[in-house]
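Researcher: Go.
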Amino acid sequence: MSVAPPVVTAAELGVDDEERPARTLSGFPARLVGIVALTVALLSIWQVFRPLAQGSQYYLVVFLGIALPLVYLSYRSWWGRLDRADAPSVLDWVLAAIALVVCLYPILPVTFGDAGGGYNAFLDRQGMLAPLDVAMGGLLLVLVLEACRRTTGVILPIVCLVFLAYGYYGGLLPQNWAIAHAGLDIDQIVDALYNSGSGFYGTPLDVAASYIVLFTLYGAVLEFSGAARFFVDLSVSLFRRSHSAAGRTAVASGFLLGTVSGSGTATAVSTGAVTWPILKRAGYRPEQAGGMLAAAGVGAILSPPTLGVAAFIVAEYLDVSYVTVLGWALIPTLLYYLGILLSVEIDARRIHAEGRAPADLADGPLPTPWWKLLGRFGYHFSSLIVIVVLLLAGVSATRAVVYATALALILAVPDRMLRAREANGPASSTGETSTDGPSTDGKSASGTLAGDASTGDASKGDASSGAMAAQPSTPTGLWTRKTLQRFVFEALRALSLGMRSALPVVAVCAAAGVITAMTTKTGLGAQLASLLVRAGSVLSDDPAVVLATTALLAAIALSLLGLAVPVTASFVIGWVIIGPALLDLHVAAPAAAMFVFYFSVLSEVTPPTALAAVGAAAVTGAKAMPTMWSALRYALPAFLVPLMFVLTDSGQHLLGRGALLDVLWVTAAACVGVAALAAATGGWILGLGAVGAVPRVLAGAAGLTLLYPHPTATAIGLGVLAVAAAAGVVERVRHRKATGTP
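Model: Structure:
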């Protein structure tokens, strides 16, 4: 039985899509953080079935009160001598204690003069805060921004400060400016942030505490159950004799592992550690392979059944079920992966034609056949299926994911038994080569619930991204008291790590409340939306031109915004500013929301800060910038398809909205358009071979035309594509005559 390549996590590389790596804790801090994180995880599950009687905002107060101190203990301050990499400093302990008091202050049943008095008394003072209330709210603002800085960097806190400055100094702007307002004083700002439903305890944090944490816990347990290893093994096995096996394996692995990690960068890094040796043997250059891994990893965030963090906010803002959002994402996901797979096929044929290496896996040891893997471990798909079935049956997303988590936890038992049997039984002498690594147990049951010196970083890269980490073994057929204790401990540790991996998202969502509160209080969103529409009308008064120009400007703005702030914050800012502009132009709310969602996510493959590409380049040893451009080529359809949502009413058919025949013809036209774009960017028309500049330009023009969802544009696009194919045939005939080849 062969040993799988070592897995490099995003945390080990120091990169991730929304966070800096967490501290490597040990000793008492590790035990404390692990136990508290487990408590928050269990509280979030309890809230699903037995909500706190005081309401959802009360739960958010408690949730933030426990989670925010964990950020200070788990993440470095980067303040020179005040910082420690292996344990919290004295300052971190002090800030954690202050965060605990400040967050829980609104619910403390203690009177402090005209302040305090418990939760109901605190709400009664809305709009008329006591001085102590204002002081506590101001402290919480500073603590939230500092937590956000520690986990995601300085850009988002700076953006929040700009919005705060606008709220406070807006009255000093010339009153003839569209964005001028009366100005807010400190009391009004703190009241909006601390004692309302649009600030710290607004929709972003509500989504994080009610949905995101549960799906993060599910991902951690799914990895613990052995499902992640199975997904990669299955991907390797499925395409072992295919002409383009290596590329297909990388793409399939990225798609399947994305359901576990929920992180584009982490997925690219994890799959790259396993598939890069295969890609290298198949003739892929480092930059080419890195671009493919990055695009496949980011695509997983755009794909059902989990999607990305911002998808939960879409459901909340539009007041629709999460399964509805999943339905909207089905066809765009098909188009995205169609583009990647077509590019993979083109790459395989070009590599084969250039004779760089055999573009298949049949020249080495064969992995375990896919049907045997399905027979042994196919049950790992059941928890994903359960989520979809329960959502379709009307069960809430929160309950569906909890049930799926419980099922994944149960399935960890047969996984350990089967892998232990394979490791110790006669399978190793059958001549099959398994992709499974050796079963090892890195910790005993006397360890800690959090990452320590022996387990590594417990950030998102560790809890949700080290997807192929070796699973602990169980003696063949035996479940002794010791192994049972170890299993229970490891299950609890998975929940704890899952909660820790969600801490950066919690900090981002709390900070996003600053942006939404200031936008709501000042009316900034409507004013900026109006300015965007005016900019779109500069070229023409024609409504179609105005909409197209506005959509293009919005796409550019979202792409630039995503370079500086995490996906979640990018969506929140984009929705409150760009969303109204699209709605004013009579774009349907689902189309506008998905447009903002897609462009918020795609910043991970947008140069010059495409973190998914940076992570993949670190694995393959490629240069970062060429890898980014390669990733952009693979992900090109993802940048163009969202524009289809908003350009015409027919674009909504790509979201599965409308009559079935309408959905089918728009989808078919888009598929042909994606194929044309793949031919243009790859310089290869399937069935013809390599083509020159003229066919490529024509194919690109055809692809862009086909992606405009209108019958006339579709007919023109098909005609241009036919001309491109004819030009390719002419080129091929001329080449054969010139070289004398048959």
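Model: Residues 322-354 form the longest helix (33 residues).
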